[in-house]
Design a protein that fits this description.
The chain has 375 residues and is α/β, with parallel strands linked by helices. The chain folds into 2 domains: 278 residues, 3-Layer(aba) Sandwich (Rossmann fold), CATH 3.40.50; 84 residues, no CATH class. It has 17 helices and 8 strands. Strands 1-2-3-4-5-6-7-8 form an 8-stranded mixed sheet, with helices on both faces. Strand 2 and strand 3 form a beta hairpin. The radius of gyration is 21 Å and the shape is globular.
Length: 375
């Protein structure tokens, strides 16, 4: 049950020239994109960078001196990650730059990314790595992700392309891009929509339990041009990573957690230089995904939009701005949500009830996936 922290103990003393970039480094960089690095790592407008070792020191100084800074961590192990990375030979001297964290409630966009340069020239792949953050703790971030179900393109995808093209203009040589959850989706979208000169520089595109795309994207010329360089990983009980269309292979990875908690990269099991692979996903994962696909296909884009907008309105009216609001006082938050639900217009309430009821019916219809499982 070894994870990325064990990997840092095993291989942290080996730089990228001795031990080339591998799938575990991919999930480490993808997780690094979640850290609160505002005012620590230079922005895309600056050409200078900062080592992970120095970023660690500044991060920990802020944690000690600024009240509430620790609570900004999206995942509880994020502070531990940057501490351990900064102590290793492999990651300590890596340069971080081009950090961006853009959230806009009005335009419903949550976008964050970071660029990493390894301290030595890699012997395979490139020594420039771009990592896109997935959905953070903000409700607007989750709203934007759900918008994928009815929109051809979301704002973060456009920003992901702009970011890749901007950073590619600041560095020479090959580039590898990666991301977790929505970040994996952004990595693939950016690779398939950037200009051809940059596409030719891309060595690999890693998506870690990232949702797929609509038919328009997966059939596009740009997507087909980079399809063979996509490395898509999903845990054995994946839900998020199985949504929408993929048209590329999903490699199943073993997680030490159960259910939706398998989405966390910290739970993914590793060997000395690779993720632990499984032959197929669990029966439960196939059941959930069959149910969700059938449910989503019942409604056109307009109906999906109405449902998501209604849920978002309820949360906004209940003054829920992030998942931390619910975690901090779940009883009070639930009471506010119920109160907000009672205030919405009858047609909208009816829409929500009917849509949820259809999800329950879809789940019932697909119960045979569990009952007639392969032995």
């Amino acid at each position: 049950m070894a994870n990325m922290f064990d990997y840092l103990v095993w291989r942290g003393d080996l730089d990228f020239n001795v031990s080339p970039f591998n799938p575990i480094d991919n999930i480490i960089f993808s997780q690094l994109a979640y850290l609160t690095l505002d005012d620590i790592v230079p922005s895309p407008t600056e050409k200078k960078g900062i080592t992970i070792e120095l970023a660690k020191k500044i991060y920990e100084e802020k944690s000690s001196n600024i009240e509430g800074f620790k609570q900004t961590a999206i995942f509880k192990d994020d502070p531990v990650l940057i501490h351990k990375l900064g102590l290793t030979k492999r990651f300590g001297n890596c340069q971080l730059f081009g950090f961006i964290n853009h959230i806009d409630i009005e335009t419903e966009v949550q976008f964050s990314a970071i660029t990493i340069i390894t301290d030595t020239k890699a012997t395979n792949g490139g020594n420039c790595y771009i990592a896109y953050r997935g959905t953070d703790s903000t409700i607007v971030g989750w709203k934007e992700s759900f918008n994928m179900s009815f929109r051809d393109v979301i704002p973060s995808q456009i920003k992901a392309v702009e970011y890749l093209e901007n950073m590619a203009g600041m560095v020479d040589g090959p580039i590898c891009i990666c991301g977790h959850s929505k970040g994996g989706n952004l990595a693939i979208y950016a690779a398939s929509h950037c200009n051809k000169n940059i596409q030719n520089r891309l060595t690999s595109i890693y998506s870690n339990d990232g949702p797929g795309f609509n038919e328009k994207v997966v059939s596009s010329e740009g997507f087909l041009a980079i399809k063979d360089r996509i490395r898509s990983y999903v845990p054995q009980s994946s839900v998020i990573g199985m949504l929408l269309e993929h048209e590329y292979e999903n490699m199943v990875i073993k997680s030490s957690q159960k259910g939706l908690m398998q989405h966390e990269l910290y739970s993914w099991e590793v060997t000395f230089n690779d993720l632990v692979h499984l032959n197929k996903s669990t029966i439960g994962s196939r059941y959930v995904n069959k149910t969700l696909h059938e449910w989503m296909n019942k409604f056109d884009a307009a109906r999906r939009e109405q449902f998501i907008e209604a849920i978002y309105h309820i949360l906004s009216d209940a003054n829920v701005k992030s998942v931390f609001d619910i975690e901090a006082s779940w009883f009070r938050s639930v009471c506010r949500i119920i109160k907000s639900l009672s205030h919405i217009e009858p047609p909208t309430r009816k829409l929500i009830i009917k849509t949820v009821a259809e999800l329950i019916r879809s789940a019932s219809r697909n119960i045979d996936t569990l009952l007639h499982a392969e032995s």
